[in-house]
Amino acid sequence: DGRTGSGTAVVTKTQTKAKRPNLYRVLLLNDDYTPMEFVVHVLIRFFQKSQDEATRIMLHVHNHGVGECGIYTYEIAETKVTQVMDFARKHQHPLQCVMEKK
Ligand code: TYC
Hints:
Family: Belongs to the ClpS family.
Domain Adaptor protein ClpS core: 19-97
Bound molecules: L-tyrosinamide
Region (Disordered): 1-14
Shape: elongated
InterPro entries: ClpS, ClpS_core, Ribosomal_bL12_C/ClpS-like
Keywords: Hydrolase, Protease
Oligomer: single chain
């Protein structure tokens, strides 16, 4: 009824502004040891890239040091980073995957 036990009125405003979710960029970092084919596989498996797009991104990371895998909401970005880091560790590759606020 709009009143708390303390007799204080509570006014709730209907949400009007559509608020955009915070987005995060998931990045792969270059290193000297992870095989190129492994990185391509990671991009296909965890980021739904085609063979050609995965190869393009892998070569970009190889040549520039860092590259974008995708842009996601916080929870999804965090899940991707964990999946890639667990997969790389399992195969004993030093591949690093990080997220940054867009
Ligand atoms: N630089 C690695 C090599 O020459 C390939 C590589 C690409 C590693 C992208 C990591 O995120 C990476 N084998």
